[in-house]
């Protein structure tokens, strides 16, 4: 990593091997990061592959170990890891200006698309085929959540290798699932508490370690009013979500549907589907919630609040990522919050399934589960196929939820 005490030279920057790297213009960053934002279908794995192909393999802007260090560091941060990686790679090239330009160009194409789709799908007078597609794709979302949890489980379990840790790991997993089902609006408190509990447990074995539980205070109070409530929901997604990706579902669902009534249950499942099939970060789902709460202004507010922590964490913390990666407290916190997050994702599949109202939707859910969990096929194709089945169901006169 670059030493944070060494001034940044605008003409050139040094890589980890000490060799000078060529100056990259902001226009080129805007063009390349915007391109990835337009074609980045498939979530974090696709984004990481595109960024690696651009920055390491094609242009040689970053050394391979620099890029891998960026992946490792951003995975330790709360919020959308692939978005933070995109911001970090641009920061390595042009520091703050590059991070801002690259991050915005990565986010904005998908954001504009999802706002446009929100206007179509959430319209009171949406065409029949649109309502059918929403009901069909929404029916598959529970299977997508279950698949996400199943995918994350093996790696998380392998991390639980210390004596007695497997039992705590299972406990955190169960607590996360129960919290997603029973106390959705306060799920973030359970995630933070599980992380804090593991960090405190490790401290018993290493009394000299210091543990900070600052997120507990941040999660304690929620504002009132439509925009305040929307901002709070978006803040939890961007600043207090550990594990990224699908953890945004249990964090948003209780607030958006049951607590503040921004969306109906059916609209929320359609929102999650839109976040999965559009390019760019999955966290853009929060813009659909914002649109349901306060139109286009709400969508922009929700996106701004959700993505601001990612920019701030990179802009003010990237120079200290080495220390973050080496922190035993951070590692311990994630060893507690991580399994709780996976449990919450799995628990959200149950609550998403409860949102279904029509028999044909359960058939679509079963088909999506077979496609994802048995045949091991892709999420985007599952949602598109489910949407197509929903269109057929609407056109033949089946009831829509």
Automatic annotation (TrEMBL):
Keyword Translocase: no
GO MF, one annotated term: chromate transmembrane transporter activity
Record Pfam families: Chromate_transp
UniProt membrane topology term: Multi-pass membrane protein
Keyword Hydrolase: no
Family (UniProt): Belongs to the chromate ion transporter (CHR) (TC 2.A.51) family.
Cell location: Cell membrane
Gene Ontology CC terms, in alphabetical order: plasma membrane
Membrane-spanning intervals of the chain: 100-122, 128-149, 169-193, 213-235, 256-277, 289-318, 330-353, 382-400
UniProt protein name: Chromate efflux transporter
Keywords: Cell membrane, Membrane, Transmembrane, Transmembrane helix
Taxonomic superkingdom: Bacteria
């Amino acid at each position: 990593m670059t030493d944070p005490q060494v001034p940044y030279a605008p003409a050139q920057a040094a890589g980890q091997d000490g060799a000078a790297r060529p100056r990259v213009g902001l226009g080129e960053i805007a063009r390349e990061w915007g391109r990835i934002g337009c074609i980045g279908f498939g979530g974090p794995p696709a984004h990481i592959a595109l960024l690696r192909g651009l920055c390491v393999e094609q242009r040689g802007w970053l050394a391979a170990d620099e890029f891998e260090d960026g992946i490792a560091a951003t995975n330790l941060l709360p919020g959308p890891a692939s978005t933070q990686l995109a911001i970090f790679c641009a920061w390595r090239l042009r520091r703050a200006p590059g991070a801002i330009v690259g991050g915005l160009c990565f986010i904005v194409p998908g954001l504009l698309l999802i706002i446009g789709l929100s206007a179509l799908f959430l319209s009171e007078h949406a065409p029949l085929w649109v309502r059918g597609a929403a009901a069909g794709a929404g029916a598959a979302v529970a299977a997508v959540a279950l698949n996400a949890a199943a995918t994350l489980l093996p790696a998380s379990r392998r991390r639980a290798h210390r004596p007695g840790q497997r039992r705590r790991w299972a406990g955190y997993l169960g607590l996360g699932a129960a919290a997603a089902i029973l106390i959705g609006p306060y799920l973030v408190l359970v995630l933070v508490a599980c992380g804090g509990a593991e960090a405190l447990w490790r401290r018993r074995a290493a009394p000299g370690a210091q543990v900070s539980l600052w997120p507990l205070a941040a999660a304690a109070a929620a504002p009132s009013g439509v925009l305040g409530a929307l901002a709070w929901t978006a803040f939890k997604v961007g600043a207090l979500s550990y594990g990224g990706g699908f953890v945004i579902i249990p964090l948003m669902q209780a607030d958006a549907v049951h607590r503040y009534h921004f969306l109906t249950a059916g609209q929320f499942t359609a929102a999650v589907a839109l976040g999965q099939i559009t390019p760019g970060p999955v966290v853009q789902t929060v813009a659909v919630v914002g649109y349901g709460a306060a139109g286009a202004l709400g969508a922009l507010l929700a996106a701004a609040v959700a993505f601001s922590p990612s920019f701030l964490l990179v802009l003010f913390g990237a120079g200290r990522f080495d220390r973050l990666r080496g922190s035993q407290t951070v590692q311990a916190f994630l060893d507690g919050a991580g399994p709780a997050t996976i449990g919450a994702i799995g628990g959200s599949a149950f609550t998403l399934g409860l949102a279904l109202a029509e028999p044909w939707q359960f058939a679509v859910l079963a088909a999506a589960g077979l496609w994802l969990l048995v045949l091991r096929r892709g999420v985007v194709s599952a949602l598109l196929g489910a949407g197509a089945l929903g269109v057929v169901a609407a056109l033949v006169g089946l009831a829509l939820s």
